[in-house]
Amino acid sequence: MNIGLLGFGVVGRGVYDITAARDDMQVTKVICLEDITLPDAEVTRDFNKILTDDSIDTVVEAMGGLHPAYEFVRAAIEAGKNIVTSNKALVATFYDDLLPLAAEKGVAFRCTAAVGGGIGWLSELERVRRVQEISMVGGIMNGTCNYILDSMTRLGLDYGEALKQAQALGYAEANPSTDVDGIDTWHKLILSSNVAFGVSMEHESVPVCGISRISAEDIANFKANGLTCKLVSRGTQAEGKYTAYVQPTLFPQGALEAAVPTNFNLITLDGEYSGRQSLYGQGAGRYPTAYNVVEDCVSVLAGKSFYSPYGGKVSADNSVKLRYYVRGGDAWIDSVTAEKWGTASVTEPVAVNEIHAWLKNNPEAFIAAIAE
Ligand code: HSE
Hints:
The protein is α/β, with parallel strands linked by helices. It has helices at about 10-20, 50, 70-80, 90-95, 95-105, 120-130, 145-155, 160-170, 175-180, 185-195, 215-225, 285-300, 330-335, 350-360; strands at about 1-5, 25-30, 40-45, 60, 80-85, 110, 135-140, 200, 225-240, 240-250, 265-270, 275-280, 315, 320, 325, 335-340, 345, 350, 365-370. The strands form 4 sheets. Strands 12-11-7-9-10-19-15-17-16 form a 9-stranded mixed sheet. The protein has a 6-stranded parallel sheet with strand order 3-2-1-4-5-6, sandwiched between helices.
């Protein structure tokens, strides 16, 4: 396999290093905006050099961001090149465009590193769905948020310091608001639901709340009640109905999720025959993520394409009811409050879509669901 590598940052550099030690694939051209030289690959700023090079059969996209990644990937598919990418924003956003195009052109499209970094989550969904229906996917999918929440809870770090450390360790996205506002997890949930359920989830129907408004007061309240806060995604399907949402969630200290440290991810599926299974591992970072990119290249060599057939559009119905911790209330929150933890409220069960709609009008508030 001859690879044209787009991007030489955290992930791209890792892909170059891992493939350099292999006989079955080599990076022959690299797009990099910095002036570097590499022993075995041509470095260029000109994507056309990759596009028009017929010896390059596979494009590995590790640039991140939507543009020009989208234009480059689309052009590469049109030119008949396989795609391997770690870019969840790209795949989730342009799912309805890129997946049918790849199928039409008969090229492979793999993005295992887009969800769970070094965990083989999407490739496991591909395997599992051959034999059984998947009724639930979700869990801790963002290393940066987990690192921040874990540092605040276990080490008493303040939010800003924990975020700075996650950035220094290479976990955070270029714009960390993508992580802390839950958008990265949202992309990963949409992609996971699409693959697991064989659908294309309507983005607007999937509400998201991140952790950027969490305070030391919240962490103290959770500890006092034996709970640990994690940013969690959840997608379900049953009898043609779907749920999908991303929100901070409180787990009892004995729960698996509560024990997940630093940048690790814990992602779970529920299958018809297998029941619940969880995958746990490094959710971010150079070599774990690059490892899964190279796994995808091996899968392409083995003849694998995308993980599931492209499905039709569906919307999430989030009328399911949960109890919520809410800091920053109003008359409606008072009307559904069952108890108080300091100045914060704990509600009786309220619909997920209802409290997320309320949050949009109350952007200073912080909410966390209480896990059932
Ligand atoms: N920023 C992401 C995270 C990188 O923190 O999980 C891996 O997708």
